[in-house]
């Protein structure tokens, strides 16, 4: 079994065929998925999807792009309130994106810190999105040493990966791992210990080869896992078992299937 640890099932790309998409994933062994919140205004939509589909879990959080719209001292409390739902198992996605800088840095940092605070109070892992913001990301994490979580859709440097691991974080690889020009990322995947790896699609974005350019969907987690198995020189079955076990260790509010 595989778990897609990061997808966006509430996005309009899935409006026409969500049940079929979830079934297609399950048929290929992707038996569980985590649909990740990017704006609080959609938190309840996501919870409804998780209520409808037994194998879908969800998170609460504000993407760094949207940080400006939710900048307020009460953000932490708002997250905590929305996270009371039984299928909310993580906080995010949050973090810092200085590549697009769609929200001012100050509001991104403030939002990130309030997510970290909420994650500690709730004892839930945090899902980190970081791009061209290594130093500030690490500074924020170091100021919340009790937090735990995952660097999602990892596309950073080797130095960032090593520091994330040193701080106890997991590293999740997406379809980018299959892209022709991702040689550096594949080198990073080779040194991340097996017990810190997760896989994800970040669908509907970033479809892996051989589907690049199409809509991405949870069933495509298989392609990233295949590539990861090659890189780690282990069987596909071992990558599936290990990343699934890692998911349950990190997102420990999710019960392991009997
Ligand atoms: Zn992201
Ligand atoms: Zn995402």
Structure characterization notes:
The protein is of the alpha/beta class and 258 residues long. It contains 9 helices and 8 strands. Strands 1-2-3-4-5-6-7-8 form an 8-stranded parallel β-sheet. Helix 8 packs across helix 9 (236-250). The protein starts with a strand and ends in an 8-residue tail after the last helix. The structure holds zinc ion (ZN) (2 copies). Residues 93, 129, 152-153 line the site of one zinc ion.
Q: What tags apply to this protein structure?
A:
258 residues, alpha/beta, eight-stranded parallel sheet, 17% strand, globular, binds zinc ion
A few lines on this structure:
The chain is of the alpha/beta class and 258 residues long.
Write the layout of secondary structure elements.
Blueprint lengths: L1 E6 L10 H10 L2 E6 L7 H10 L3 E5 L14 H8 L5 E10 L7 H18 L3 E6 L2 H9 L6 E3 L6 H9 L3 E4 L9 H9 L5 E3 L21 H12 L3 H15 L8
Parallel strand pairs: 1-2, 2-3, 3-4, 4-5, 5-6, 6-7, 7-8
The structure holds zinc ion (2 copies).
What is the helix content?
A: 25-40%
Structural class: alpha/beta
**Mean pLDDT across all amino acids:** 97
Uncertain regions spanning at least 5 consecutive residues: none
What composes the largest sheet? 8 strands, parallel
**Helix run count:** 9
Q: Which small molecules are bound?
A: zinc ion
User: What strand order characterises the main sheet?
Assistant: 1-2-3-4-5-6-7-8
Distance between the termini: 13 Å
Q: What's the number of extended β-strand segments?
A: 8
H-E order: EHEHEHEHEHEHEHEHH
Percent in strands: 15-25%
- Overall shape: globular
User: For the CA atoms, what is the radius of gyration?
Assistant: 17 Å
